[in-house]
Amino acid sequence: MRKTFFSTLFLLLLVTGLTACSKKNENMRSDHIVTGISADFDYLNPLLIQLSLSREVCTLIYPSLVKPSYNEEKGKIEYKPSAAKSWEFSPDGKHATFHLRSDASWEDGKKVTAHDFKFSYALYKNPKIASSRQHYLDDLLLLPDGSADIERSVETPDDSTLVLHFNKSLADEIVLDHFNDLMPVARHLFSSIPADEIRSRAAEMPVMGAGPFKVKEWKRQEKLVLAANPSSVLPHPAVTGTMTFLIVPEYTTRLAMLRSGQIDALISAGGITPKDAAELKTTNPEISIKPVRNRYFDSIVWLNIDGENYRNSRTIAPNRFFGDTMVRRALTYAVDRESIIDGFMGPDHAVIVNTSLSPAYKAIVNKTMEPYDFNPGKARDLLKTAGWTPGPDGILQKNGVRFSFELAAPVGNPRRNYAATIVQQNLRDIGIDCRLRFDESLIFLKNQNEFRYDAALSGLAAETLPFQLIIWGSDFANRPFNSSAFRNPELDRVIDALSRPVTGEEKTALWKTYQQILNDEQPRTFLYYYDELEGFGKRLSNVEVNLLSTLYNACDWKLNK
Question: What is the pTM of this model?
Answer without folding.
Answer: 0.87
